[in-house]
Design a protein that fits this description.
The chain has helices at about 1-20, 40-50, 55-70, 85-90, 95-110, 115-130, 145-155, 160-190. With about 190 residues, it is mainly alpha-helical. The chain is globular. It comes from Vespula vulgaris.
């Protein structure tokens, strides 16, 4: 009994010392606007570094997958709408350039998960820019979800565990919702003017 009491007393005095003199523990909460826990945010940002080193090939693969599943979307892209085969698409400089641009947008978004104001402003702007594309429908943003996940899985290989996959699903959903918010705001501004 005396032993247990001394452990409690020692623990209590350690806790008091920790409160009085030590720096606070690292932040374990995230911005309430972010639908990820601190651990999930860390996981996605850490694993994204590997994707960041392969932005262009990951992006090209993502677009090839997009066009395999949604051939009609190819018509929105004036610079490479005539590339009907996977071979033509994978060797196209125009497609590679667009893939790099889109992946850099995703890269900036994921890297700014620590700063929700920057994240939201950046992705709202990216979403708004799509209002300039003739025939673009806000629902088209959702069509990139599965190709994005396929491309990230291909790039991360064995590091793409079930846990990592579930975190990327939450992340891409949040990114797409944010792009759509930006698109919708820009559409309603256009309608007012």
């Amino acid at each position: 009994m005396g032993c247990e009491l001394s452990k409690l007393t020692a623990a209590k005095s350690r806790n008091q010392n920790a409160r009085e003199g030590s720096p606070p523990p690292p932040q374990t909460t995230t911005d309430p606007r972010l639908p990820l826990t601190a651990r999930q945010k860390f996981t996605v940002m850490a694993s994204w570094r590997a994707v960041g080193r392969a932005l262009e090939p990951t992006g090209v693969y993502m677009f090839i997958r997009l066009f395999e599943e949604n051939a009609e979307l190819l018509n929105l892209f004036t610079k490479f709408r005539d590339l009907k085969t996977k071979e033509q698409q994978s060797s196209s400089m125009e497609l590679a350039e667009h893939a790099r641009t889109v992946m850099m947008t995703l890269d900036e978004g994921i890297k700014s998960l620590d700063d929700m104001d920057t994240f939201l402003a950046y992705l709202h702007q990216a979403g708004a820019s799509h209002t300039k594309i003739p025939g673009f429908d806000r629902q088209y943003f959702w069509k990139i979800e599965k190709p994005f996940l396929d491309a990230v899985e291909r790039t991360l290989e064995d590091r793409y565990s079930e846990n990592v996959e579930s975190i990327y699903k939450l992340t891409i959903k949040f990114i797409i919702e944010t792009l759509i918010d930006g698109f919708d705001k820009a559409q309603s501004e256009k309608a007012k003017s």
